[in-house]
Write a structure and sequence with these properties.
With 430 residues, this protein is an alpha/beta fold. The protein is 38% helix and 13% strand. It starts with 5 loop residues before the first strand and ends in a 12-residue tail after the last strand.
């Protein structure tokens, strides 16, 4: 059997990472996007998204990836993925207009024997309602990429979840060959089950996050240390070593919130109970205000004109995305506070205000600062000794929800160290 030619329609985060992974397996990838500006950047070797190892893998597989703004290039393909990121609105609802239009466009050039695979996340019922491609040639593949770890997840998937019109029938042989190149289990099921499986995964993650945040906040009040409790839970076979147990500033990034919103919509439509989902969202909203509450209580209540340094604006490390960033949301609530900002990837202009001051060196922005907030756990911040921070700052307050710094060393350096899941550590000035 000849090597299948694989097309990707949509060169945003999902499509670009997925196409690069396919090319590294030795399969030719035709990469289409209607935005000529994106294609021109890619042809120059400029990657519009930040993911560890993406640029180097793309360069290594450059001969197998062809980028084009010409829709007709997808007519050469045996399998075509619909792969743009699906935007969400302020209520975490998906805007499906773009993906519907793109699906229709691709169908107009798709070969009569080619398969179409919906890779973008869609709600239950979407694929069954598609009529521009025969259902026997239409599949839904659940994407499980994680911002900051997308390349790792795309290259070494745990499993493939594939939705089919009839899961009793074998997959298209070219699509099956493509999936088999990754050497992981392939789970086939009906469209609706696959569409809901993605939501089920994120709901379970959201429940774990909510449990961790609820219990870690109790730790902060009673003198327990959540970091001591986590290993006990991860060694429980019913929970496991990879459980989402680290406390955080609520659910961020958009995908989890979108899936919880979808469950609520389905519950309302079919008159089922979804109070547990409402509880997850309420807990997320409460925990997302931790930095706001802590900064006010520890500093701004007594020094409203204080200067605050901030490390990190991206919603998580190793990504350029600020959508639903806890950092951006928290800082927006202090319109009169002077912030000095640093992020390795995100520009200070991402803050929805006109006067933040940014700097290229994270230590540089600590001069004259009364407090430091470390709101994104970038690896380079972990390499900075607390003693350097204490020497550079005017004040001693550090808010570090993700425990980027070593708590013991922070205390020894004389810092007033605030983090999630443990009582605030205060030490004498060094």
């Amino acid at each position: 059997m000849s090597t299948p030619v694989v097309g990707f329609a949509g060169m945003t985060h999902l499509g670009l990472v997925s196409a690069t992974a396919v090319a590294t397996k030795g399969l030719p990838a035709r990469c289409y996007d209607p935005d000529l500006g994106i294609i021109e950047r890619l042809l120059r070797g400029e990657w519009p998204v930040h993911e560890p190892d993406l640029a180097s893998l793309g360069a290594a597989s450059r001969q197998l990836q062809q980028f084009s703004a010409d829709l007709e290039t997808l007519g050469e393909c045996d399998v075509v993925y619909i792969s743009p990121d699906v935007p969400t609105d302020t209520h975490a609802k998906s805007d499906l207009a773009g993906i519907l239009a793109l699906t229709n466009d691709v169908a107009s050039v798709l070969r009569s024997d080619a398969a179409m695979v919906m890779l973008s996340q869609v709600p239950p019922g979407f694929c069954r309602a598609v009529t521009v491609v025969p259902h026997e040639r239409l599949y839904y593949q659940v994407e499980t990429l994680i911002f900051g770890r997308a390349v790792e997840r795309a290259m070494k998937p745990e499993r493939f979840i594939v939705g089919c019109a009839d899961p009793r029938k074998p997959l298209d042989h070219r699509f099956a060959a493509l999936l088999s190149a990754f050497g992981c289990p392939i789970l086939t099921m009906r469209y609706e089950s696959a569409e809901l499986a993605k939501i089920a995964i994120n709901f379970c993650l959201a429940a774990s996050i909510g449990a961790a945040n609820t219990l870690s906040e109790i730790c902060e009040r009673i003198g327990a240390d959540w970091s001591e409790i986590m290993p006990a839970l991860k060694l429980d076979g019913r929970i496991g070593p990879h459980a989402y147990l680290a406390p955080g500033l609520g659910i961020a990034g958009g995908n989890l919130e979108r899936d919880l919103a979808t469950i609520i919509d389905l519950s309302q439509r079919y008159d089922t109970d979804a109070e547990i989902v409402h509880a997850c969202l309420a807990n997320s909203r409460h925990r997302s205000q931790w930095a706001v509450r802590t900064l006010r209580e520890a500093l701004l209540a007594r020094s409203p004109r204080a200067n605050v340094a901030v490390w990190g604006l991206a919603y998580k490390e190793n990504t350029h995305s600020t959508k639903n960033s806890p950092a951006v949301a928290a800082l927006a609530q202090f319109p009169d506070t002077c912030f000095k900002l640093h992020d390795p990837v995100v520009a200070a202009s991402a803050l929805p205000r006109a006067h933040p001051v940014s700097a290229g060196d994270p230590i540089e922005i600590l001069s004259g600062a009364d407090a430091l907030m470390i709101l994104t756990a970038w690896p380079q911040y972990r390499e900075i000794a607390p003693e350097r921070i204490a020497r550079a700052m005017r004040g001693r307050i550090v808010l570090d929800p993700h425990q980027v710094l070593d708590r013991g060393r922070a205390m020894q350096a004389g810092l007033e160290y605030h983090t999630l899941g443990v009582v605030t550590a205060r030490a004498n000035r060094a």
